[in-house]
TrEMBL record:
Bilayer-spanning residue ranges: none
NCBIfam families: putative hydrolase
Region described as Disordered: spans on this chain: 1-35, 433-457
Name this protein carries in UniProt: Hydrolase
Domain of life the protein comes from: Bacteria
Lineage: Bacteria, Bacillati, Actinomycetota, Actinomycetes, Propionibacteriales
GO MF annotation terms: hydrolase activity
Pfam families xrefs: Zincin_2 (PF10103)
Listed InterPro entries: Zinicin_2, Zinicin_2_N
Length: 457
């Protein structure tokens, strides 16, 4: 953003004050031995002549670092949206035209027609849209809140738990301010990450998560053009291929009701395993100048709130990455079948997408650093091979029927033996899925009043 800190844009100007104390140890510091000890010593530079901390001055200086209300939430999402939109505007964005929308609509209609032969999951894209980068930020923010809030909540809780019992008498107002500060800093950093992601994603499902509205296929024309640079292919081929992937994602998430919540639950499991390195926070706090709002942002960029990898967290990440790989691998196989005899350039485009998704773009890596989540399918190629093996052995129906219930899904170990799983999938495809469902999960037939309330039918 032209070298200007995001926090600098939103924080009030620093006020001059007395020099900070160089005293290495303050016996009146209630936060002694905690990650906040160094921060308190920095703030206690505003103390009176006797060296007694002036809490009013301390709270006033902390307030300078606050960038707005979080309304009790772990992330200041108003700030995140503002910064994301400013980041997009700085990088360059434009309003979509009717011609952009028409080209996307044509590509989506043809993609739906091609996919009818490649999957049993029905068409769901009743509408399509061409989004600008700013529209992507605005329209995907609700899902990002669901993804990021559990992570931020656990980080905030871990920081609060670092306060010792003897500091509780001082912690009331300070803890509230620190939570607000953390929400604002998280908001600033998430906003920066989303703004950068908005310049890379080509569709609403580009990173695997269902970020857009159900039943609407979305492409970002300017990012599609950026994706096509250097490939030596026609704009029509690239647009159609990316539309095929978007429509396939739409069919999968609409046709597999449990999948969306399954992914979000994996994120929540990851958040529950967060263990914050309080020592890292303490070392970072020692370098923060309370009169310099940029210092907190720099500390965060250096990993101030970056969680440690606990065993629970690693296990949750494996489950999340496996599910993302299965989603992307299925889409890869479906699109490959749909384009097999129609689009020679699909092979090149498929490989480009695979490399891009497996490695993650610069903005995706930045976002992963901020919230600790690696939202990319590390084993996409293995998953695509597994779905292809199942299709070869059991047909399109056998492949798609495995999405009927999460208990039928391939495991991480199955990705190591796709042929073995494909043989086993024949047994799975003959299972009566109703045996797995609770009464609430079982679909009801709105045209049959006699049987709709009978859980045995």
């Amino acid at each position: 953003m032209d070298g200007t800190s995001t926090l600098e844009l939103y924080a009030p100007p620093a006020q001059e004050g007395p020099p900070m104390s160089d005293e290495p140890d303050n016996p009146d510091n209630p936060f002694k031995g905690t990650p906040f000890e160094a921060m308190f010593q920095q703030f206690s530079g505003a103390a009176g002549a006797g060296g007694t901390p002036d809490l009013n001055a301390i709270f006033a200086q902390v307030q300078q670092l606050l960038s707005g209300s979080t309304d009790g939430k772990p992330v200041n999402w108003d700030l995140a949206k503002d910064i994301a939109r400013k980041t997009v505007a700085t990088a360059g964005d434009r309003s979509m035209t009717s011609a952009d929308g028409d080209r996307v609509a044509d590509a989506v209609r043809l993609a739906e027609h091609w996919l009818d032969e490649a999957t049993t999951l029905p068409e769901v894209s009743a509408t399509s849209a061409a989004w600008s980068r700013a529209e992507w930020v605005e329209n995907t923010l609700p899902v990002w809140q669901t993804v990021v809030d559990p992570v931020a909540e656990h980080v905030a809780g871990a920081m609060g738990n670092a306060l010792p019992a003897e500091a509780q008498q001082f912690a009331g107002p300070m803890a509230g301010m620190l939570r607000q500060l953390g929400g604002s800093v998280f908001g600033a950093q998430v906003g920066q990450g989303l703004g950068e992601l908005a310049s890379e994603v080509v569709s609403s499902s580009d990173i695997g998560l269902p970020l857009g509205p159900t039943g609407q296929a979305i492409l970002l024309p300017d990012n599609v053009a950026k994706f096509a640079e250097g490939l030596g292919l026609t704009d029509e081929d690239v647009r159609l291929y990316l539309a095929l992937r978007e429509v396939a994602h739409q069919r999968l998430y609409a046709g597999v009701p449990w999948l969306r919540q399954h992914l979000l639950a994996a994120v929540a499991d990851y958040a529950a395993g967060i263990e914050v390195d309080t020592g890292k926070i303490e070392r970072a706090m020692a370098d923060i100048d309370p009169q310099n709002p940029e210092a907190m942002q720099e500390a965060l960029a250096g990993g101030l709130f970056e969680p440690e990898d606990s065993e629970q967290q690693k296990a949750a990440l494996v489950r999340l990455e496996t599910t993302l790989a299965l989603v992307e691998g299925w889409v890869d196989d479906v699109v490959r079948e749909a384009t097999r005899d129609r689009m020679p350039s699909a092979i090149q485009l498929s490989e480009t997408v695979r490399r891009r998704r497996a490695a993650g773009g610069p903005a995706e890596q930045t976002f992963a650093t901020l919230v600790g989540l690696q939202l990319r399918p590390r084993r996409l190629r293995d998953a695509a091979n597994l779905w292809a093996a199942v299709r070869d052995a059991r047909g399109v129906d056998g492949r798609d029927n495995l999405w009927s219930h999460p208990d039928l899904m391939p495991s991480t170990a199955d990705l190591d033996d796709p042929i073995g799983f494909a043989q086993h999938a024949g047994e799975l495809s003959n299972i009566d899925i109703s045996d797995f469902l609770t009464d609430e999960d079982k679909p009801t037939d709105s045209t049959s009043d006699d049987d709709g309330d009978n859980p045995t039918k």
